[in-house]
Specification:
Length: about 575
């Protein structure tokens, strides 16, 4: 009875405490480990159990393409990686672990670049880091201008340069296949100072445009390919969409592109783990800004940059001010490559991981890629951001293998993009004598003075001779056309036909001379759209010139004709 009374006097809380005290502490530890494991599994988005249930066969690679796409049926269909499965390294079975390991180590191959400093038209400087196929064969390492060896241009991601692990994986893979590779570092990266008031951003395509044109004209026989990664992929796809058919790029690959910057901005600030990435990237951008503080402090809001804790804050205080965008959302909308996918005319492989912690699947332009016959979109369930580690030792990146297979298959096919013949001839005739590399000096009259490097001297002098000969041929052809046009004018007076033709030729020459000087000046400093401007000038000015010539010659021929009629 006493026991019953005691039990009846205890509260429910006391009874629970007594019951909990009877449970061994080891059981609590195991329960805590289990709960933390579940939470950690969800937080890190691990998929090792899913891989185990699939027998470690990996996830299937899904391809999106136009049903009538020849790029898929004749190129991508030959790539085993695109028609297989991707299995992540078991101890990196998480997009966050993969991305973190890529940033910390990545196990890149060991080799040494050869650096070339390139001066842009606006005075900016880029570092072009080369790895030639001959460098891996202990050869002389000199690339010939007439070589037909394929050339790959790599555009790194945000705050990344040629030393990034994923860049080295790609560069080494392509070089071992006998291709020449050059990494076009962004302005202010790769240990190069900012030498102009222009900085790179997610939509700045002028640098890649100038580099592509420079390489194409320096090595006209080499098929030119491009690979963009992360922000570099956004820049590359935007450039391809802007140029359309008028680009010398034979084929390209876009790896982990953010596609829609506005949606990506919303995504990266949505969850706790994504906010960590946002702060980490902002920290990297602030480090980049500190390297170039003297210029950014003058051009942007330096106090706002120092207080930036997100990419959006940095873009508000730096990018939008320097690039002159009204708002951050305006910058994101105008620079998103998803808006340019429909105009891409180059065979393009796009690779994205559906678990990418930085570039969400919500930004992928599925329908636009499916509607374009030149694009093949490959997505994998796993892979992280630019990681895609495979193998037990995580020594390989799956996307590097898929990209190299696609580019090699495209090179061996007849579906490489080729710039229109007339565009190539017109540009080469005007720009072959103007080499914009830092090893030459461009004079005011358009001539080229070679520097001290013997190999470069020989190439530049040959270019100057060829360009001079082409300009002389052009002048001769223009003179012939002028003579033909003058001869085609009917003679009003047999006695004065020679004088009249000479006067007409002089008038036409005087009228065209300013236009020619303007075109030459544009050719020297712009290098693009010159012939379009010439065509517009000719079409718009010809009616005026024709009317002027008609009025002048009608007055001159009126007296001789009247005198002839009176004599009859």
């Amino acid at each position: 009875m006493s026991a019953a009374s005691v039990a009846g006097g205890e509260s429910a809380v006391d009874l629970l405490r007594r019951a909990a005290a009877l449970v061994p502490a080891e059981h609590y530890a195991l329960a805590a480990i289990a709960v933390l494991s579940v939470l950690g599994y969800q937080f890190l988005e691990l998929h090792v159990l899913g891989d185990l249930l699939r027998g470690f066969r990996g996830g299937r690679v899904d391809l999106v393409f136009h049903p009538a796409s020849e790029i898929y049926h004749c190129v991508a269909s030959k790539c085993r990686s695109l028609h297989g499965r991707y299995l992540a390294t078991p101890w990196l079975a998480s997009p966050h672990l993969q991305t973190l390991f890529l940033g910390i180590s990545g196990r890149p191959p060991l080799f040494t670049y050869k650096r070339q400093l390139y001066t842009l038209r606006d005075g900016g400087t880029l570092a072009l880091d080369w790895l030639l196929a001959s460098d891996l064969e202990d050869a002389d390492g000199i690339i010939s201008q007439d070589a037909s060896t394929p050339l790959v241009v790599v555009v790194p991601g945000l705050t990344s340069d040629s030393d990034a692990a994923y860049v080295k994986h790609l560069v080494h893979s392509m070089a071992t296949k006998g291709w020449n590779v050059v990494v076009s570092n962004h302005r202010g990266l790769g240990g190069v100072s900012i030498t102009s008031d222009c900085f790179y951003n997610a939509g700045w395509t002028e640098d890649i445009r100038e580099i592509v044109n420079y390489l194409h004209h320096k090595f006209p026989e080499a098929p030119l390919f491009c690979v963009g990664t992360s922000i570099g992929a956004n820049v590359l796809v935007k450039y391809l969409g802007e140029e359309g058919e008028n680009t010398p790029v034979a084929g390209a690959a876009s790896i982990c592109s953010p596609w829609d910057l506005l949606v990506g901005d919303r995504f990266i600030s949505r969850k706790l783990v994504q906010r960590f990435y946002d702060k980490a990237l902002a920290f990297g951008l602030k480090g980049y800004a500190k390297l170039h503080q003297p210029i950014l402090a003058r051009l942007a809001n330096w106090e706002g940059i120092k207080k930036s804790w997100s990419i959006r804050d940095f873009d508000r205080h730096a990018t939008c001010i320097v690039a002159k965008y009204e708002t951050v959302d305006t910058y994101y909308r105008r620079c998103s490559s998803a808006s340019y996918v429909g105009n891409v005319s180059v065979p393009l492989l796009c690779v994205n991981a559906l678990d990418d912690p930085l570039c969400t699947r919500e930004t992928i332009p599925w329908d636009e890629c499916r509607a374009n016959k030149n694009i093949v979109l490959a997505t994998t369930p796993n892979g992280g951001h630019l990681a895609f580690f495979e193998g037990l030792t995580a020594g390989r990146l799956w996307w590097v293998r898929a990209t190299s297979e696609f580019l090699c298959a495209l090179h061996d096919s007849s579906y490489m993009h080729r710039q229109k013949a007339e565009d190539h001839v017109l540009h080469s005739s005007l720009e072959s004598s103007i080499d914009k590399s830092p090893y030459v000096n461009v004079m005011g009259d358009g001539s080229v003075a070679p520097a001290t490097d013997d190999v470069v001297n020989e190439l530049k002098l040959n270019n100057g001779v060829n360009g001079t000969q082409e300009n002389e041929h052009a002048k001769e052809a223009e003179n012939k056309r002028s003579v033909v046009e003058v001869d085609a004018v009917p003679a009003q007076s047999p006695a004065g036909s020679a004088n009249q033709q000479g006067e007409m030729a002089n008038m036409i020459h005087d009228a065209i001379a300013p236009v020619k000087r303007t075109i030459n000046r544009l050719t020297r400093y712009q290098g693009r759209s010159v012939w379009l401007l010439a065509y517009i000038a000719l079409v718009t000015s010809w009616p005026l010139l024709r009317s002027l010539a008609f009025i002048v010659f009608r007055k001159k021929f009126r007296n001789p004709i009247s005198a002839k009629q009176q004599s009859k």
